Amino acid sequence: MTYGNAVLNKARTLVIDTPGVNSLVPMSEDEKVTRDMLLSDRSDVVVQVADTKNLRRGLLITLQLAEMAVPFILDLNMDDEARSRGIIIDQEKLSLLLGVEVIKTVAIRRSGIDKLLKGIQHPRPSPVEVRYDDAIEGGIRDIAALLPEANIARRAIALMVLSGDESLKGWLHANLQDHIVTEIEGIRQTTQSRFNNSLGYLINQRRMKKADEVLAQVLSLHEPGRALPSRFISADGPCTRSMAFRS
């Protein structure tokens, strides 16, 4: 992670730039670092920086941030590259659907940065909710009831447990008595026994379906024209990164 300082509303603010991630159920050390920061450190605002060309993958992170109930805004970066490929995102409708501020930027040209700085002043949790199979919802409810207060919603932590997030075990043992951790694992195993596919797969598939539902309402594809050539070429790496701002 990279740390820096900024002046927002005439106040000195700590800015934390996290590594790019594809999921907040960690499959890599970078993803674990980002997840742990959200889990353990309370931030005034999280800025999700998503690649506009790969918004479907970005929305998977958006939905997880919504489940965490953290205040955030969504930055659709590299909008020029998306437009050069005929990808147009209805920014206002996406903001309405997600219930959070959505900003378009071209960071390398500093386009949209002023709007981004203004948007940071109005973060809010997203009311969007992904509903899972009844058995999974029951597992979420039973596990959440055993969890302590944290910087993110208990529902999000319960979903991490059900997804089989081994990297969460240290946090669970640090915050709960061993017999409670054992009870939580029992709930996870009982819930898993009701399905042939892994819970992690089923949870991710449902999030993808929700992301597709949102994307279908805001995405339009056009024949790439010559009026907006892309002068900047970037590799399609992790779909999103985040910045946390703390007073």
Describe the protein's architecture and organization.
With 247 residues, the protein is α/β, with parallel strands linked by helices. 44% of the residues lie in helices and 17% in strands. The chain has 10 helices and 8 strands. The strands form 2 sheets. It has a 6-stranded mixed sheet, with helices on both faces. It is globular and about 55 Å long.
Q: Brief description of this entry?
A:
By secondary structure, this protein is of the alpha/beta class. The chain contains 10 helices and 8 strands.
Radius of gyration: 19 Å
How is the biggest beta sheet arranged? 6 strands, mixed
Task: Tell me the quaternary state.
Answer: single chain
| Structural class by sheet pairing and helices | alpha/beta
% residues in beta strands: 15-25%
Write the element-wise H/E pattern from the N-terminal end onward.
EEHEHEHEHEHHHHHHEE
Strand line-up in the sheet with most strands: 1-2-8-3-4-6
- Euclidean distance between termini CA atoms: 18 Å
Count of β-strands: 8
Percent helix, as a range, is: 40-55%
Number of helices: 10
Shape: globular
* Mean pLDDT across residues: 87
